[in-house]
Amino acid sequence: DIQMTQSPSSLSASVGDRVTITCQASQDIGNYLNWYQQKPGKAPKLLIYDASNLETGVPSRFSGSGSGTDFTFTISSLQPEDIATYYCQQYDNLPWTFGQGTRVEIK
Amino acid sequence: QVQLQESGPGLVKPSQTLSLTCTVSGGSISSGYYYWTWLRQPAGKGLEWIGRVYTSGSTNYNPSLKSRVTISVDTSKNHFSLKLSSVTAADTAVYYCARSSFRWFDPWGQGTLVTVSS
Questions:
Q1: What share of chain A is helix, strand, coil (3-state, %, to 5)?
Q2: Contact at 8 Å (CB) between A30 and A42?
């Protein structure tokens, strides 16, 4: 299985801060990476697909970049409604696997 | 738009079989080129892909669960199902169904908590 390692596991930032999460794959996955947002008690929601493409309707403060084994997810200006856990997910090989998640809180 | 809803018992005894159904509304389960997928998430933990079924009935399973999992589709009822046999406490989780393209999971059902306990 391809292992996905996210860091940090949690972070606390102020409203308006720039937030960055990294995701590293255990092997080259090209750009076969997605990012999801999961709010407490809810199902995950697709935010970014193919490493850098914003899903329709997702605010432009969210962005993704990277290829190969190293990927970055950024919130350019953190908003209170962004409090959630964020997961990366690879689809290069079955079984599709997720990172362990990054919990984002407001300071 | 397409919506998914999980249903099934919330409590299963150890060694028994967990059975869940995901009903698709707002569209036909047979339309488009989609896989119909099950995932799970133990409390406070990350997400695990269990497996998927295509409308032809072909399946792919997570090797870690393959010996215990069966996923099937019933196009006449517009739903698909999960069976997980010989469950233990480690199978306690929120179970999600989702539609997947060849690249991502979207949309998801709201999830259903299944507890394994005697």
A1: 5, 50, 45
A2: no
* Average model confidence (pLDDT) across chain B: 96
Residues whose CB falls within 8 Å of the CB of residue A57, separated by 6 or more in sequence, listed in order: none
* CB contact (8 A) between residue A98 and residue B104: no
What's the pLDDT tens digit per position in A47-102? 999 999 999 999 999 999 999 999 999 999 999 999 999 999 999 999 999 999 99
Across the interface, do A46 and B109 touch by the CB < 8 Å criterion? no
One DSSP character per residue, chain B reads --EEEEES-SEE-TTS-EEEEEEEESS-TTSSS-EEEEEEE-TTS--EEEEEEETTS-EEE-TTTTTTEEEEEETTTTEEEEEE-S--GGG-EEEEEEEE-SS-EEEE---EEEEE--
The pair of structure tokens assigned to A87 is 């997961």
DSSP classification of residue A51: T
B104 neighbourhood in chain A, CB within 8 Å: 34, 46, 49, 89, 91
What Rg do the C-alpha atoms of chain B give, in angstroms? 13
